[in-house]
Write a structure and sequence with these properties.
Layout: E1 4-8, H1 14-23, H2 33-36, E2 48-52, E3 55-60, E4 62-65, E5 68-71, E6 81-82, H3 88-104, E7 109-113, H4 126-133, E8 137-148, H5 157-168, E9 172-176, H6 180-195, H7 203-212, E10 217-224, E11 227-236, E12 240-248, H8 257-269, E13 275-280, E14 282-283, E15 288-289, H9 291-298, E16 303-313
Parallel strand pairs: 5-7, 12-13
Antiparallel strand pairs: 1-2, 2-3, 3-6, 4-5, 7-16, 8-13, 8-16, 9-10, 10-11, 11-12, 14-15
Helix pairs in contact: 3-4, 5-8
Length: 332
């Protein structure tokens, strides 16, 4: 019988954690400790490391609020991160160990968000099956607009008109190494005017993350007559280019700036990626859809995958005590 154990992440685990993330089958740079800890003052880290016979087989990026543990709330996605060798039974047992560990530590509930399948380097949905066995409750579902760049896709007529307009207007696209002009002149004013909101990341935080992950965080701006009119911030992982921020300067004249920009990103800059992820168009915990925003993304050829969020009672570890059916081993 294999023995599973769980421990809370400590600073001394920095190297082992990052080495594991580097070879996991469902991890991106967001799970590197240098990314997770840029906002450590805002989250009480409660990340876990799971061992099978003293070998690290999974990690759970997480934080704690009161008596509830969450898949890290400072990250877009999360869940149980596993290595390429992990079998289904390993992940189920690892998840059972997590629930038992949390219950022993007086934690009654775990809120776990999954990692969308496009970010897996190989199939890695074992945790969804473990959640089903543990009778987890689906509490949120977001819809991501994604282009599979390995398949045929097409831009709509209205997007093609926007691209042509951008060419006619002489728009210029530049990749920048700083975020000041996009944040100050486009993103912040738009969010304040339209949603009375601010970007999740400050300029200082973006510059810090860019210095730590220069090849993964990229900023593209669009200029008209030397003035910035639009831009996007892209988080780039092995298989996916994800649009973290998208915004254009709201003025009377429609320059086709975003159509022009995204045509360039999709067909030139990230053409060798497997997926181009526009992100979600949801609000209210996934229960409302911004129809116009969703349509705009779909008119580039994007279609939908879902991102699920679960709540599970830690006492439900008992549901995972006997999930196996005894059978003869297959040797052929």
């Amino acid at each position: 019988m294999k023995n599973y154990s769980v421990k809370q992440y400590q600073k001394s685990d920095y190297t082992n954690w990052n080495a594991f993330i580097g070879q996991a089958k469902n991890a991106t740079f967001l799970f590197h400790r240098d990314f997770m800890e840029y906002h450590k003052d805002r989250f009480g880290d409660f990340s876990l490391m799971i061992f099978e016979n003293e070998k690290l087989v999974a990690v759970l990026p997480a934080n704690k609020v009161g008596e509830i543990v969450y898949s890290h709330q400072g990250l877009t996605y999360g869940g149980l991160v596993s290595n390429e060798q992990s079998k289904l039974t390993t992940i189920i047992n690892a998840f059972r160990s997590v629930l038992l560990f949390l219950e022993d530590n007086k934690i009654e509930k775990l809120h776990l968000k999954t990692i969308p399948s496009i970010y897996h380097t190989k199939p890695a949905e074992e945790i969804q099956y473990a959640l089903f066995l543990a009778e987890a409750k689906l509490v949120r579902r977001d819809s991501l607009s994604v282009i599979d760049l390995s398949q045929k896709y097409d831009f709509s007529k209205i997007r093609k008109r926007g691209i042509k307009k951008g060419m006619t207007k002489g728009l210029v696209i530049k990749e920048e190494t700083n975020f000041e002009s996009f944040w100050d002149e486009v993103l912040i004013p738009n969010l304040e005017a339209r949603h009375n909101a601010k970007p999740v990341h400050s300029i200082a935080e973006m510059n810090l993350l860019k210095s730590r992950f220069p090849n993964n965080i990229r900023q593209f701006n669009v200029y008209h007559n030397h003035k910035i009119v639009a831009g996007t911030t892209v988080f780039e992982s092995e298989a996916v280019a994800h649009c973290q921020y998208i915004s254009k300067y709201e003025n009377v004249e429609n320059l086709g700036s975003l159509d022009f920009l995204y045509h360039f990103l999709i067909t030139v800059v990230f053409v060798s990626k497997r997926f181009f992820d526009f992100g979600i168009s949801n609000e209210s915990q996934g229960k409302k859809l911004n129809e116009g925003l969703s349509y705009w993304k779909e008119s580039f050829g994007a279609s939908t995958i879902v991102h699920d969020f679960y709540e599970v009672e830690t006492a439900n570890y008992v549901r995972l005590n006997s999930f196996l059916i005894k059978s003869k081993k297959h040797t052929d």
